[in-house]
Design a protein that fits this description.
Layout (H helix, E strand, L loop, with lengths): L1 H8 L2 E7 L3 H14 L4 E8 L5 H5 L5 E6 L4 H12 L4 E5 L3 E2 L4 H11 L3 E7 L19 H14 L4 E4 L6 E5 H7 L12 H11 L3 E9 L1 E2 L3 H5 L4 H16 L7 H8 L4 H4 L4
Parallel strand pairs: 1-2, 1-4, 2-3, 6-9
Antiparallel strand pairs: 4-8, 5-10, 6-8, 7-9
Helix pairs in contact: 8-11
């Protein structure tokens, strides 16, 4: 009972980056407040919003805010948040998401159950193929419909999951000690794209596996920050993919498993990315 209480009381740092997109951010935070029973803190890193986002974030309880005057990118912003995170666990969560009941409790369960897991991610409608599902039709504007689908989905797949080769950065859950081991996100992938795959690779080189929790569903609107800020998503995707392949000397992403074997064990002087 004592161990169970300690687990439930362990602080979780929820790090959310914003760059405009206030309407999405409000939906995201409302869903967290509604569906999260564990002990958590908010860490908001804003990358130069001009739509009232920072003013809104200042009204959220139990939150710390880093307000950048310029865009630090996904890697830079995440690293800022990781520096000040006080939690035993870390959640990196995109602001264009809607979480569902029990989302965090189930992901904690996976990390506690299997110490060989480095990062846990959920199932979603808009995500890397390894985590993607085609949900029953629901209105993305209806939190009730999303919750109804997620409840049924999670119940049917309770405590099931599987190992995957890489994990999407839209929602990553891990122990803070992982950052002590492998470092943060590589800033070369500015402003975003491929930094999550790079983080996945370094996690695996460190000897930890990546896990998708089949019993967690999170709705993801997808690429909203790029669209809202008129950034060329496809161009960034291609260019940062090139940087990723060059960094790890791969021809394509099908070589990740071979790469992990080749680069192991983890060499801090080679693989670590300082915050």
């Amino acid at each position: 009972m004592k161990e169970e209480n300690e687990k439930n009381n362990a602080l979780i740092s929820i790090i959310i980056l914003t760059r405009n997109g206030l309407s999405y951010t409000k939906l995201c935070i409302d869903s967290i407040l509604e569906n999260t029973e564990l002990n958590y803190e908010f860490i908001f890193v804003d990358n130069g919003s001009n739509d009232g986002t920072v003013q809104y974030l200042s009204t959220v309880k139990n939150a710390r805010i880093i307000a950048n005057k310029e865009n630090k990118g996904f890697s830079g912003g995440c690293n800022q948040g990781l520096k000040i995170a006080r939690g035993k666990y870390i959640v990196l969560l995109n602001n264009d998401t809607i979480v569902t009941n029990g989302w965090l409790t189930r992901m904690v369960w996976w990390l506690e159950k299997d110490p060989t897991i480095g990062v846990v991610g959920p199932r979603s409608n808009m995500v890397l193929p390894e985590q993607s599902i085609n949900p029953e039709q629901y209105k993305a504007s209806s939190s009730l419909q999303i919750e109804k689908f997620a409840t049924k989905w999670s119940k049917e797949r309770a405590q099931t999951g599987n190992e995957i080769s890489r994990i999407s950065g839209f929602c990553m859950f891990f122990r803070k000690e992982l950052i002590d081991k492998i470092g943060g996100f590589d800033p070369r992938f500015f402003p975003g794209n491929s930094e999550d795959t790079d983080f996945s690779i370094r996690t695996r080189i460190s000897g930890k596996k990546l896990w998708v929790a089949n019993d967690v569903f999170i709705h993801h609107f997808g690429n909203s920050t790029f669209m809202i800020n008129n950034e060329k998503y496809q161009h960034l995707l291609v260019e940062n993919r090139k940087k990723l392949l060059s960094k790890w000397q791969m021809m394509n992403l099908n070589e990740i498993d071979e790469l992990v074997k080749r680069e192991s064990p983890f060499d801090r002087s080679k693989h670590y990315i300082p915050l």
